[in-house]
Design a protein that fits this description.
Serine Threonine Protein Phosphatase 5, Tetratricopeptide repeat; 499 residues; single chain
């Protein structure tokens, strides 16, 4: 969030005298002398720079009492309230600023932010659009990029993802080093399952960003992208620079996911000792307890969260894991389904519920759950193997081979996988294109070294199936030289003679 100071207000075209400074006296209380508003305003800037937000607020209120038309003071108050998430108070101040000067870009920008905080998204978009309309050639690149960021956020909140994407990409073109823009754009990609695109936007961002607020947001995004090591290192820097309970929570959760279980439990316990009401930390501690085999303790921690927030995704997944550990698969499945209602894209809930279906041979349920998510960047690798098993168990050989062939293409040197694809396809004529079958057979021979009879016979069979009789005969000649009088070779020779 961009912090307003006297200098940034001036930079945005808000000349204090023109905003209602000492020359505007008609609405100023007689209890104040001319110039008091500037003195209070300057004192507020000093208090804020020193981190004394209460004193800054008091001084700004005195400035607006001295001169109710003091635009800069209303703007600074609105920004102060935004920094404290006091969105209703911020709205009131920015609305006053807009009333005083409708063509103030910063006023509309601040009002849009306050309205987003209040979830009044349609009205937030109106003011974000108005702010963008006020951007001209004299606006700095930073402010132009920031305005686009607020507009993009409002568009996302109003469901216009396509235009939001265009807006945020323009913001990044305007200021390629703006971490806040990169975070917003990466999150938009992540929510669409485009994990690779999201991660690409964040290459080395944490190495040059020093704002602890942005580092916190970045660390949380790394957590959501399952880049847990980067999340740990980024959040640790943010926490060291500006200790916050939310940062500590995500630091604990990231350590847990990164395999640093003892650190995760320690940090979560530290947070709970100080803030027993910070219920989300129970999910982290509960995961640690479950990993150590304390099923009942983990269940209690999950239930603590669900009592406060019945739809909490992390707690529902933990509750499902607890039921799996307690050998209650039906109850576990119910918990995972509830988690997916809370977060339909939740990778852990999908994976854990899919594992239940797979282990219980519930093939149709497994396929229905997993298939829509196979193309996600964060899809679990074993899904592509398991869906083949599930489809074959249901007799859907053609669909199974489609997935198995794609899996083999993704592993070009896995000759055993190429062999299995070709063999299964040859056993089920018409289930896979003959040329595709031949390609898998050729790669099986190539990457196995071609020194075994099994692979050579497979290639001969694939050549015959594709109508390449002469090439099949040549391959068979090579096989007869290496394995004379072998019954499999003799059978293929007989088949060739009968064609």
């Amino acid at each position: 969030m961009r912090k307003l100071t006297a200098w940034t207000l001036l930079g945005a075209g808000l000349v204090l005298g023109a905003c209602g400074g000492p020359d505007v006296q008609d609405s100023t209380s007689s209890a104040f002398m001319a110039g008091d508003e500037d003195r209070h305003f300057n004192a507020a800037m000093e208090h804020r720079a020193a981190g004394d937000l209460g004193a800054a607020e008091d001084s700004l209120l005195l400035a607006t009492q001295a001169n109710p038309r003091y635009l800069a003071a209303h703007m600074a108050l609105g920004d102060l309230y935004l920094s404290q998430a006091r969105y209703a108070d911020a709205r009131a101040r920015f609305e006053e600023a807009v009333n005083l000067r409708d063509r103030s870009l910063d006023a509309h920008l601040g009002l849009a932010r306050a309205l987003r905080g209040l979830d009044e998204n349609a009205l937030a978009l109106v003011h974000a659009e108005r702010a963008w309309a006020l951007v001209d050639d004299f606006v700095t690149e930073d402010l132009r990029s920031e305005t686009l960021l607020v507009l993009g956020d409002a568009l996302v909140a109003n469901g216009d993802r396509e235009r939001a994407l265009e807006t945020l990409e323009l913001a990044l073109e305007t200021n390629s080093t703006a971490t806040s823009v990169r975070i917003a754009l990466a999150r938009l990609h992540a929510e669409a399952g485009e994990i690779g695109a999201a991660a690409a936007l964040l290459t080395r961002v944490e190495t040059y960003e020093d704002d602890p607020v942005l580092l916190h947001e970045l660390g949380v995004l790394f957590y959501d992208l399952r880049l847990f090591d980067r999340s740990v290192s980024t959040l640790q820097i943010a926490q060291d620079a500006n200790p916050q309970d939310d940062t500590l929570y995500y630091l604990a959760a990231s350590n847990m996911r990164a395999g640093n279980q003892e650190i995760g439990i320690q940090l979560a316990s530290e947070l709970l000792n100080r803030r027993p009401d910070y219920v989300y930390a129970y999910t982290v501690r509960g995961q640690g307890e479950l990993e150590r085999g304390y099923v009942d303790r983990a269940r209690q921690d999950a239930l603590r969260v669900l009592e406060v927030e019945p739809t909490n995704y992390e707690a529902l997944v933990l509750a499902g894991d607890v039921e799996v550990a307690a050998n209650n698969p039906g109850s576990a499945a119910d918990r995972y389904r509830a988690a997916l209602e809370a977060n339909p894209m939740g990778i852990d809930a999908i994976d854990h519920l899919a594992s239940l279906h797979y282990n219980r041979s519930e093939w149709a349920e497994y396929v229905a759950l997993i298939e829509p998510h196979l193309d996600r960047d964060d899809a679990v690798a074993r899904w592509r193997e398991q869906i083949v098993d599930a489809l074959l168990a249901q007799g859907e050989v053609e669909r199974a081979l489609t997935y198995k062939s794609a899996l083999a293409n993704a592993r070009p040197r896995d000759y055993e996988l190429h062999r299995d694809v070709a063999r299964l396809a040859l056993q089920n004529p018409g289930s896979l294109d003959a040329e595709t079958v031949l390609d898998h057979a050729r790669r099986a021979v190539e990457f196995s070294g071609g020194s075994t009879l099994e692979y050579r016979i497979l290639l001969v069979d694939a050549l015959m199936a594709s109508g390449r009789i002469d090439e099949a005969s040549t391959q068979l000649d090579t096989a007869e030289e290496a394995w004379p009088n072998n019954p499999d070779v003799q059978e293929r020779r007989r088949q060739l003679r009968n064609r």
